[in-house]
């Protein structure tokens, strides 16, 4: 028997689809359904799109805690219908003031985490206390609702406190994500206590009963934030507790880091394409590279999506990635850790949010602050550990990230919001879906399910085997090809989602291969 297995790998053979939803009174789209429903509840109780997005993000601290949380950071794009303006809430992480470059000596080996940097001794930029940057999520969520929301901080936190008191509902997806990081999680006592009970990966009960994992002191932390406000995280006892925990483990966070941190509201980068105005984060994200790739596209005269157009899209992305590498900093992505989470919301008044928030790697630093129950980020891994590069690690510095939330306006009105999780794969995914919708007249649901490529490693093109042979032949002119199914795990093409407004009807949809993701409507 010939066992030549060079053809397509069948890691998953199921046929997967997810229905889009429509809603006159609002839509919430998230990577975990329980959190999405909490956002929906906020809309139903008079909250707006900003309130719903923040509530969903806070719920994800419990329901999808390996992707984002109070110990992380991110970006929110907000469309305000009454003012007809778009704003960006920047709550990105920043490196500690006391960071020492000497904490990250190169080992001389290739790295194996999300960005493929040269390896650092003991992987101290990837996990542990010295991988932790100053978190921005609490400041960003609070600023957004203070400036743009209808609900108060305590109103939004009420259901989250109850959720955290209950704990994380175990699913097979929990088992898979914990198993993927178990070898590192076991090295951190508090993380192992939560995520490896009895020193084993948590397994869903076979008697079909609900089963939950307690998340340490996280519920108490939410209660403190409700009682004292978000400033308590940065200028109160919570800041002291986090700093003490991190410094006891050898980290560099300080009280000054927390006291000096602030989220900001700024104007978006606007990239004009056809009749679209695409609103992006302008500085520390993949937003500028998205705009660069868009500017490199030829004029597509016809709306048929044939092989030559896939070639042109891939070529524009490769050139934009290369420009980013040369001018902003960057490196090859040799890891398969899909991370981050993305949320889209829309309310009955037409306000819209696209928010991407993250711990960076799955389970971030893998370090849980024992006093607070907060899983901390590993934002230092965004920096190049080599000196003399645009994105080199340094104290009190914002890193370049790969998040790419966007809101596109058509003729001055919201047309779609998009974003994704998935590290460096985010940009290519969001870019192609935006083009599928605008240039090739696909629905959001069709665009999310349509084959895509990933060119983010620059040395090869990963492509979906559903592409035609002619398309594969054209793509092969740009770089060596690697065929990969659109699998659930690992995710080769990121995990995108969005909201699309067609003829006045709002439609929400999610990546079909993301098992717990959902779009819910009011």
Rg: 22 Å
Find the structural class using helix and strand composition.
alpha+beta
Widest β-sheet, arrangement of strands? 1-22-21-17-16-11-10
- Assign the CATH architecture of the largest domain: 4-Layer Sandwich
| CATH fold name of the largest domain | Glutamine Phosphoribosylpyrophosphate, subunit 1, domain 1
Shape: globular
What is the count of distinct domains? Answer: 2
Separation, N- and C-terminal Cα atoms:
56 Å
Give the DSSP E fraction (strand runs of 2 or more residues).
Answer: 15-25%
Question: At the first level of CATH, what is the class of the largest domain?
Answer: Alpha Beta
Percentage of residues in helical conformation: 25-40%
CATH superfamily of the largest domain: Gamma-glutamyltranspeptidase, small (S) subunit
Would you identify the regions where 5 or more consecutive residues have pLDDT less than 50? 1-8, 331-336
Main pleated sheet: 7 strands, antiparallel
Textual characterization of the structure:
The structure is a single chain. The protein is α+β, with helices and mostly antiparallel strands and 522 residues long. It has helices spanning 33-44, 49-63, 137-148, 153-166, 172-185, 189-195, 218-228, 231-235, 237-248, 255-260, 287-295, 307-327, 425-438, 444-449, 469-475; strands at 21-22, 26-30, 73-80, 85-91, 106-110, 118-120, 168-169, 212-213, 264-266, 269-273, 276-280, 341-347, 352-358, 368-369, 374-375, 406-410, 413-421, 453-454, 461-463, 481-483, 495-502, 505-510, 518-521. α11 crosses α12 (307-327). The chain folds into two domains: 28-167 and 214-521, Glutamine Phosphoribosylpyrophosphate, subunit 1, domain 1; 171-213, no CATH class. The strands form six sheets. Strands 1-22-21-17-16-11-10 form a seven-stranded antiparallel β-sheet. The protein is globular.
């Amino acid at each position: 028997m010939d066992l030549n297995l060079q053809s397509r790998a069948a890691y998953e053979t199921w046929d997967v689809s997810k229905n889009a939803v429509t809603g006159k009174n609002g839509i919430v789209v998230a990577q975990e359904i329980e959190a999405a429903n909490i956002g929906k509840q906020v809309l139903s109780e008079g909250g707006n799109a900003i309130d719903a997005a923040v509530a969903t993000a806070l719920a994800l601290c419990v329901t999808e805690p390996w992707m984002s949380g109070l110990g992380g950071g991110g970006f929110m794009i907000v469309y305000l219908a009454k003012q007809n303006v778009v704003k960006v809430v920047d709550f990105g992480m920043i490196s500690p003031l006391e960071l020492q470059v000497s904490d990250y000596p190169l080992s001389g080996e290739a790295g194996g985490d999300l960005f493929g940097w040269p390896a650092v001794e003991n992987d101290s930029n990837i996990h542990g206390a010295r991988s932790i940057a100053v978190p921005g999520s609490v400041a960003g969520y609070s600023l957004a609702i203070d400036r743009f929301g209808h609900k108060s901080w305590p109103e939004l936190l009420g259901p989250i406190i109850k959720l955290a008191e209950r704990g994380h509902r175990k699913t097979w997806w929990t088992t898979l994500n914990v198993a993927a990081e178990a070898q590192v999680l076991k090295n951190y006592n508090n993380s192992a206590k939560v995520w490896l009970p009895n020193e084993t990966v948590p397994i869903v009960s076979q008697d079909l009963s609900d089963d939950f994992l307690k998340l340490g002191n996280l519920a108490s932390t939410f209660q403190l934030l409700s009682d004292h406000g978000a400033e308590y995280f940065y200028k109160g006892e919570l800041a002291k507790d986090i700093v003490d925990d991190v410094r006891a483990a050898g980290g560099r966070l300080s009280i000054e880091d927390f006291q000096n941190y602030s989220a900001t509201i700024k104007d978006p980068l606007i990239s004009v394409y056809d009749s679209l105005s695409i609103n992006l984060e302008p500085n520390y994200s993949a937003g500028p590279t998205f705009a660069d790739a868009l500017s490199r596209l030829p004029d597509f005269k016809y709306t048929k999506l044939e092989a030559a157009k896939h070639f042109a899209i891939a070529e524009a992305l490769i050139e934009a990635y290369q420009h980013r590498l040369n001018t902003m900093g960057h490196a090859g992505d040799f890891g398969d850790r899909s991370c981050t989470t993305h949320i889209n919301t829309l309310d009955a008044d037409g306000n819209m949010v696209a928010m991407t928030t993250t711990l960076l790697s799955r389970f971030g630093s893998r370090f849980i602050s024992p006093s607070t129950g907060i899983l901390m980020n590993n934002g230092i891994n965004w920096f190049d550990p080599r000196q003399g590069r645009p994105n080199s690690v340094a104290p009190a510095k914002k890193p370049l990230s790969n998040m790419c939330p966007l809101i596109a306006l058509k003729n001055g009105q919201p047309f779609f919001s998009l974003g994704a999780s998935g590290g460096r794969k985010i940009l290519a995914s969001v870019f192609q879906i935006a083009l599928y919708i605008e240039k090739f007249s696909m629905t959001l649901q069709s665009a999310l399910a349509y084959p895509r490529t990933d060119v983010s490693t620059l040395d090869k093109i990963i492509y979906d085997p559903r592409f035609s042979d002619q398309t594969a032949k054209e793509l092969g002119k740009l770089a060596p090809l690697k065929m990969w199914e659109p699998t659930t795990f690992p995710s080769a093409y990121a995990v995108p989602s969005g909201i699309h407004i067609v003829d006045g009807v709002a439609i929400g949809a999610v990546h079909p291969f993301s098992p717990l993701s959902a779009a819910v409507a009011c």
